[in-house]
Amino acid sequence: MQSLQTSFGYDKLFTVEPEGRSGGLALFYFDSFDVTVLFSSNRMIDIEARIEGKKVSMTFVYGDPVTENRGKVWDDLVQMSMTRNENWLMVGDFNEIISNREKRGGR
By its UniProt entry, which InterPro entries does this protein fall under (predicted)? Predict the structure, then answer.
């Protein structure tokens, strides 16, 4: 990952190591954003950043591909929401497709 950090030109790198042969998350960012990692797991990285003097919370999510495990991700997000009073951006792949009809291009 550090070679990608250098190639992409970012100052900082935060990683969550994979479990076995799957998973793992990486967050690349610049020093100028004053980033504090508040929480991380194999499914998300939650940060607080100062951007142009404004405090912003951001959560980068990779939802569990196993349907039975998805509730844990949502439980964590709901818990986080109870302490948030500032701007909050959630972005990622939430893996929340209910049926194949929601997809384009078939299965």
Answer: Endo/exonu/phosph_ase_sf
Q: Is the pTM higher than 0.85?
A: no
CB-side neighbour CA atoms (13 Å) of 76: 21
CATH of residue 38: 3.60.10.10
Dist. CA 17–CA 7, nearest whole Å:
20
Instruction: Supply 15's token pair.
Output: 């990683």
CA-CA distance, 95 to 82, in Å (whole number)? Answer: 23
Could you read off the pLDDT tens digit of each residue along the chain, which spans 107 residues?
Answer: 888 888 888 999 999 998 887 778 999 999 888 999 999 999 999 999 988 888 999 999 998 888 888 889 999 999 999 989 888 999 998 887 767 776 676 55
By three-state DSSP, how is residue 3 classified? helix
Q: What are phi and psi of 76, to 5 degrees?
A: -65, -40
If one counts the domains in the chain, the total is 1
